[in-house]
Amino acid sequence: MAITSNKETFSKDRILTYYGNEFFIIPTTNIAFIYIENSIIYVINSDGKKSISNESLNTIFLKLNRHQFFRINRQIIINISAISKIIKMGLILKVQTSPSCQSPIFVRKNKIASFKNWING
User: Fold this and answer.
1) What is the architecture, at CATH level 2, of domain 2-119?
2) Which residues pair with 8 in a beta bridge?
3) What distance in Å separates the CA atoms of residue 83 and residue 101, rounded to the nearest whole number?
4) Max Cα separation, the chain?
5) What's the pLDDT band for 40 if we cut at 50, 70, 90?
6) Sign of the dihedral defined by the CA atoms of residues 98, 79, 101, 110, in that order
7) 84-88-89 Cα angle (round to 5)
């Protein structure tokens, strides 16, 4: 439990995921990013291992530490420690991660200000 500015907020320390018949308990500090593809929620840990969550992206994001995680768009949540490079491309930003995301990650112009504020802590 984290307490911030007269408001109590709760953030998860870990999430339960699975791959095949195996379940995995992943500490949130080990999550690089979480994304949705074809209605499946994938959790990528800092080693690049992929697992699946039954929770929606919205539900997961509401339970994560907002200082550590940012919702880039409707498809992806990123951990600040997974960002390896940010590239300005006209009116958008391209975010590169480690481990790499299979699809490019773009911050659209309407989210750039909040993204920069999040980066600056």
Assistant:
1) Beta Barrel (2.40)
2) 3
3) 11
4) 45
5) very high
6) negative
7) 125
Are 10 and 63 in contact, with CB atoms under 8 Å apart? yes
pTM metric for this prediction: 0.87
* Structure token digits, residue 2: 């984290």
Question: Residue 16 forms beta bridges with which residues?
Answer: 25
List, as one string, the DSSP characters of the chain: -EEETTEEE---SEEEEEETTEEEEEEGGGEEEEEEETTEEEEEETT--EEEESS-HHHHHHTS-TTTEEE-SSSEEEEGGGEEEEEEETTEEEEEESSPPSS-EEE-TTTHHHHHHHHT-
pLDDT in tens, 89-110: 999 999 999 999 989 999 999 9
Tens-place pLDDT, residues 2-38? 444 334 456 889 999 999 999 999 999 999 999 999 9
Amino acid identity of 18?
Answer: Y
